[in-house]
Amino acid sequence: MHILKISKADKNRLKVMFLAKHALGTGAPDPADGNHAIYHHEMRTTLEEIGFNVVAANRYEAIFERPDVDYVVILLNRGGFLNSEMLAPLLLTRHGIKFMGASPIIRGLGDDKHLMKLAAAHRGVPVTAWEIFRRGGRPVERPRFDWEQLVVKPNASSASWGVGAFDNWEDARGHAEHVLGEGHDVIVEPHFGSGDVVIPVVGADGPVILPAMRFRMPGQDDNFRSYEEKRALVEAPREILERIEDPVLAERLADYTGRMLPEVWPFDYGRFEYRHDAETGELKFMEVNLSCNLWSKKTVSGAARLLGVSHVELVETIIAHSMLRQGVIDRVDKISVEASQAA
């Protein structure tokens, strides 16, 4: 992997909008979003540290009319309505302004867990059985696959929002109908394995597959965490981010991820997630997040650090790749990780 650097002249020339719910925040935790507010504040200060001329905005209305900017870093994904992750990319595409992430249609594909399971199966990547229930579609019916425990969640949820695990059908159906009533499509699948394993991918020299990672929960076999735990809204054991040292498992994760890349490339950064059964060694693809958390405490930054890439270097590399592939800039400086460390 190379670290990509944007020239000082381009940084001085370009006006960059940072669009995120807490882009104007102080860095204090939010009562509803918890540590996501800390993450957004860190991202804004990181962009400023890189040397960008940053314009911060926290509402979609900031791009209803064409803003006076050259490029947008979008972290405003959960807008409170179905498929909200596509709105900012669509508006900016209409204005002809380039942005970090992926095209609107790819963002929609990536955030639809049902469609990505179809894509994974098409590419020969194993997945669990599942059922999809769309708003206004067929009624919620008992799954046609065998199960002992069911996982029910919004089909486009992030950070485990709205996820529930159930041992009986009546409770599972009740939760599915509740999520549908909240305005979301629902996916139902059998609980599988003993933990999540993830593999981040970033744009640099083409797609770069970073080291495979996992979050481990002290004293727990499974690393299943609720939305409230992930956002630090409740007291819970502190998760431990660690590299997957098993070379066979890491190689399989990289192989499966590489098979799926043609479905969603080009994009600027993302995280491919799988469920792993520690006893049998089985892996099953779960979902992909093409606008995953870039906080310095999360998996993408943690995986990059294992290669000797700092958080600031990672963010600049991702944005440099994004700007270059979309024609915002026409050149970048490439620095080997070894040369960066020596300097």
UniProtKB/TrEMBL annotation:
**Residue intervals of the ATP-grasp domain:** 117-320
Which Gene3D superfamilies does the record associate with it?
ATP-grasp fold, A domain (3.30.1490.20), ATP-grasp fold, B domain (3.30.470.20)
Q: Which UniProt keywords apply?
A: ATP-binding, Ligase, Nucleotide-binding
Q: State the source organism's domain of life.
A: Bacteria
Looking up InterPro entries in the UniProt record yields:
ATP-grasp (IPR011761), ATP_grasp_subdomain_1 (IPR013815), Dala_Dala_lig_C (IPR011095)
Transmembrane ranges, per UniProt, are none
Which PANTHER family does UniProt cross-reference here?
A: D-ALANINE--D-ALANINE LIGASE, D-ALANINE--D-ALANINE LIGASE B
**Stated family:** Belongs to the D-alanine--D-alanine ligase family.
**Protein name according to UniProt:** Phosphoribosylglycinamide synthetase
